[in-house]
Amino acid sequence: MVQAAAWLDGLPAPQARINHGFALLGLGQAALALSDFDAAGAFLPANDEACFGRGLALESLGRRAEGGRGFHGIAGTLTRSLGLRRQRASICAAFASRL
After folding, report:
1. Which of 14, 55, 71, 99 could form a disulfide with 67 if both were Cys (CB 3.0 to 4.6 A apart)?
2. 2-97 in CATH: which number?
3. For the chain, which residues make up each domain, given as ranges?
């Protein structure tokens, strides 16, 4: 994780910021990770990885309500894109149980 974080540090591409954010989460640096996910989200607002990482970072920072909203948004995207409309409630509940 330390090497991954070092290699990705400072790269401006949104996907690099997302990957850097996950590396930072793995190192327990949620506040810095949140910064990366927010920066990536500014360029790719519908990116599920950035939204999910942001939710994990917020949860790690004790901001569970904010994180939960992001998880619910991803559950909605997944259910629409995968044709799982009937399962949406159970997927939302699964994300909510993490909170």
Report:
1. 55
2. 1.25.40.10
3. 2-97
